[in-house]
Specification:
Elements: E1 14-18, H1 24-41, E2 44-46, H2 56-66, E3 69-74, H3 76-80, H4 82-97, E4 102-107, H5 117-120, E5 123-124, H6 138-160
Parallel strand pairs: 1-2, 1-3, 3-4, 4-5
Helix pairs in contact: 1-6, 2-4
Length: 174
């Protein structure tokens, strides 16, 4: 390896991952696919698996307040969850409206997501055609999640660029 050179960056960025416990398999898949992004860019992917004992609602609210982005793992289970629809999503949408975070989503299973335009207005993880990942080959869903990680990385890096405002109208003339 390279002595004294770290390949890892500590960005301090955090992405909140919202999912139904019924979709734990998909959460784990997303965690695995996003691990290189987490490791090399210093991005924390937070889910309720990071909860400590005690006031779960308050910990989730604090995590959303701290988040730079959110990933919604959307399925029929996700949309059927009263907790997600009545608690998490309103909190995430308020944070988005306040300009505090960006929202991305993954279409995991066939579901009636069209009834939720507040979700579908955001960038989906897709390779072009929006289709449920559950119907894809392993190569297909992995490629789609990898594309989603690239979208998240591009968003976070785009936010970090310093604003340079060059006023070309005030050039000095002799």
């Amino acid at each position: 390896g390279r002595a004294g050179v770290s390949l890892f960056r500590q960005s301090g960025d955090m992405i909140f991952v919202s999912y139904s416990h019924e979709d734990e398999r998909w959460r784990k898949r997303f965690e695995n696919m996003s691990k290189p992004l987490s490791r090399f860019e210093g991005i924390e992917f937070w889910s309720d698996r990071d909860l400590k004992g005690g006031e779960w609602d308050r910990q989730i609210e604090r995590a959303i307040q701290r988040a730079d982005g959110a990933v919604l793992l959307v399925s029929d289970n996700f949309l059927a969850s009263d907790y997600i629809v009545q608690k998490e999503l309103p909190c995430l949408f308020r944070a988005y409206e306040a300009g505090r975070l960006m929202i991305f989503w993954a279409y995991l299973e066939p579901c009636d997501v069209k009834r939720y335009p507040e979700i579908t207005r955001f960038q989906a993880m897709t390779l072009g055609k929006l289709e449920p990942m559950s119907g894809m080959t392993d190569f297909g869903w992995r490629s789609t999640m990898l594309r989603g990680c690239d979208i998240i990385d591009d968003f976070l890096k785009g936010r970090e660029r310093p604003a340079i405002n060059i006023d070309r109208t005030s050039t000095r003339r002799n």
